[in-house]
Amino acid sequence: MDTIYRLSLAHKYCDEILWLPSNMDFRGRAYTVAPHISHLGSDVARCLLEFAHGKPLGAKGLDWLKIQVVNCHGTMKKSTLRERRDYANNMMEEILDSADHALDGRGWWRTADDPLQCLASCKEIVNAIRSGNSVNFISHLPIHQDGSCNGLQHYAALGRDQAGAEQVHVAPTDVPQDVYSGTAKLVEQIRERDAKAGVAIAQRLEGKVNRKVIKQTVMTTVYGVTFVGGREQISRQLKDQNAVDEDDLWPASCYLVKAVFDSLREMFGSARQISVSLQRTCRNKMLLVFLWIYSIQSSPDWCEWQLYDNTRCNIASNVCGHTALSNKTLRQRLWLHS
Question: What confidence tens digit (pLDDT) does each residue in 305-314 have?
């Protein structure tokens, strides 16, 4: 029923330019008010949206459309941009079939992580190719660009942490990196070392440490998450995955949150020092008062980077507006023209 309602709204406004009213929270993050069709919605909602004012693809635009369709499909998440583009070229017959025979064809698009957005990308690629001049083809399809744990990106840059910078794509790497998987590997190394040393809880956690267990704690480190908060996050994940017995939830979550913090200190050494320094400065009441106003329940360094990061996003949006560049901010993710 929800899908039918979204489609009916899209049909009603398909020939009109939509403006998505947004609220801005105290951190400077903009959230769309519209509940049914917005860039914050599900695959159904996102596939229905395109820019009102199209732009020519230019020399590299078609390549970005190919990268977009592969990203939506989800089979090449760990591959380089060149490998994703080459994969799209190899799958061109499937892309053509999906665009021309969406309902009665081979259905490659149906196997995607985001099938409807994948289908929209297939159709845009086919239209561009068949236009006879893809460089001048006017495209309206949004191309998704996302950051990699933005808070850690800022800290890695401030602290000149090479290893950390590579994990969050501040420094160039040959293949996409994943700070959550990287942290999980370090935590697993700690667990293996402790298990060999006879630590009982480390032994019982064999095969239980994965990306999902530690992701939220890593993500909220820059928000000022405490040991208690991190332990609760990991405990919930272990419980949801039925990874350990009820009696082991407390010791396992305590053990893992300490391992996560130790791993992050190893990966983002200078960044952690900056964070601690900011917290000490705030405790001494030497930082600007407005940072305290907005961060009573969490560490002030979180508020500082949030305000800076979201101010940067909002400034970028304003610049795009003044220079006639279309964009839409999805928290810290951008929808851009190809």
Answer: 455 555 555 5
Structural contact between residues 251 and 238, judged by C-beta atoms closer than 8 angstroms: no
Q: What is the pLDDT of residue 283?
A: 65
Q: Residue 276: which residues within 8 A CB-CB, separation 6 or more?
A: none
328 three-class SS: strand
- pTM of this prediction exceeds 0.85: no
* Average pLDDT in the chain: 82
Is 260:185 a contact under the CB 8 Å cutoff? Answer: no
In whole angstroms, what is the distance from residue 31 CA to residue 110 CA?
29
Task: Give Cα separations from 326 to 122, 142, 329, 330 (angstroms).
Answer: 21, 9, 10, 13
State residue 162's pLDDT score: 84
| 28 dihedral zone (left: phi>0; alpha: psi -120 to 50; beta) | left
pLDDT of residue 304: 46
The label of the residue with tokens 């064809």 reads 105
Phi-psi region of 330 (alpha: psi -120 to 50; beta: other; left: phi over 0): beta
